[in-house]
Every structure is written in C-alpha cells, then in structure tokens.
Write a structure and sequence with these properties.
With 93 residues, the chain is mainly α. It has a domain at 24-66. Helix content is 68%, strand content 0%. The chain has helices at residues 6-19, 25-65, 85-92. It starts with 5 loop residues before the first helix and ends with a helix. The relative contact order is 0.04.
C-alpha cells in the first residue's frame, strides 16, 4: 500500500514494542487504524468534490457554447437563414 514490505513492518513493530508499553499497543494500533480510515474517507470525499466541480464547470462551458436565446423566433425555434436572391432565381430558370 505504501511501498512497505514485510521486513519493514516487523521492524516497526519491534521498535514500537521497545518504546511503547506492550499494554498500550492495542489501543495505539486501533487509533492509528481509525486515523488511516479517516484519511481515506477524506481523500475519497475530496476526489468526489473535485469531480463534481469539474462536471459543473464543463456543464457551464457547454451552456456558454449554446446559441443565444435572442436568435430564436417567438415560437422558440431557430429562425431559418435567408437564401440569397441569386439562388431563388436559378431555381426558376
């Protein structure tokens, strides 16, 4: 998980037993485990918040790319572009 192998874990446990009273080790291990769980939850929440913010920014950018509402006619449909006069006269001939 953190790039720690079995030998490093054994060394940490031996040092902990030497410096910390063996009776207190279970309580300390439990506290450390809870701290890791809280860090993991906070990290996941941070990722989720960043993803939500990113989605919101992309949604707003998509709304800005939409055609402005003023270019629509009264019925809500986009106005058809006018055809040049040269095209209409070519069709009649």
């Amino acid at each position: 998980m953190f790039g720690i192998g079995l030998s490093e874990i054994i060394l940490i446990v031996i040092i902990a037993v030497i410096f910390i009273e063996p009776e207190k080790l279970p309580g300390i291990a439990k506290a450390v485990g809870k701290a890791f769980i809280e860090f993991r939850r906070a990290g996941e929440e941070l990722k989720r918040n960043i993803k939500e913010a990113e989605t919101g920014i992309l949604d707003r950018a998509g709304d800005a790319a939409a055609p402005p509402k003023e270019s629509r006619d009264a019925q809500g449909a986009q106005a058809a572009p006018e055809k040049p006069a040269a095209e209409s006269s070519e069709k009649k001939a």
